[in-house]
Design brief:
CATH topology of one domain: Rossmann fold
Largest sheet: 6 strands, mixed
Helix content: 10-25%
CATH class of one domain: Alpha Beta
Strand order of the largest sheet: 4-3-2-5-6-7
Structural class: alpha/beta
Number of strands: 9
Mean pLDDT: 93
Bound molecules: inosinic acid, magnesium ion
Order of helices and strands: EHEHEEEHEEEE
Length: about 180
């Protein structure tokens, strides 16, 4: 038996939306340079595809913070596992995240990054799952708003699997 996955957004739908986000960012940052901070591992696929659609100069940085481990519920514990290796002082930073769920991870991370003195700090998330929010997070760019379902694909995992799916789907674990 295998987990069941029902498609929520096709590869084409995601690509179209990323093109729109890229165009919006390119317009708003015209004449400037942007630093994308990709939050590993979940945002990896999205961040690369988004970067390709931005026409102003882009610097790509990576950061890894703890999230759920192999659970599907938030532990509420957030820690930096891999930090940036470049300062962001004076830069136009856009944090690129896969999904805002409870909001705990991003709330904490944005606060840390703000203290490092970027010129501007914005958030771009592929998905927003507002039903489970416990901490308010301001989203500047958002791909799709989704209902309270556990989804995988396009970088998002279930127990480290399915990050490579080219689409986004709802996973029903084997046996449920
Ligand atoms: P938050 O702190 O609850 O907002 O957690 C955000 C993180 O939880 C994301 O970066 C994801 O890694 C993970 N996450 C939340 N919802 C899902 C989901 O539906 N599928 C896969 N990962 C998820
Ligand atoms: Mg995850």
């Amino acid at each position: 038996m295998a987990d069941k996955i029902n498609v929520m957004f096709t590869e084409e739908q995601i690509t179209d939306r990323i093109k729109e986000l890229g165009a919006q960012i390119s317009k708003e940052y015209e004449g400037k340079e942007v630093t994308l901070i990709c939050i590993l591992k979940g945002a990896s696929v999205f961040a690369c595809e988004l970067a390709k659609r931005i026409t102003v100069p882009v610097q790509m940085e990576f950061m890894r913070v703890s999230s759920y481990g192999n659970e599907t519920v938030s532990s509420g514990v957030v820690k930096i596992i891999q930090d940036l290796d470049e300062p962001i002082r004076g830069k136009n930073v856009i944090v690129v995240e896969d999904i805002i769920d409870t909001g705990r991870t991003m709330h904490y991370l944005l606060e840390i990054l703000q203290h490092r003195g970027p010129e501007t700090l914005k958030l771009c998330t592929l998905l927003d799952k507002p039903d489970r929010r416990v901490t308010e997070v301001k989203m500047d760019y958002n791909g799709f708003v989704i209902p309270d379902e556990f989804i995988v694909g396009y970088g998002l995992d279930y127990a480290e699997r399915y990050r490579n799916l080219p689409y986004i789907g709802v996973v029903t674990p084997d046996g449920e």
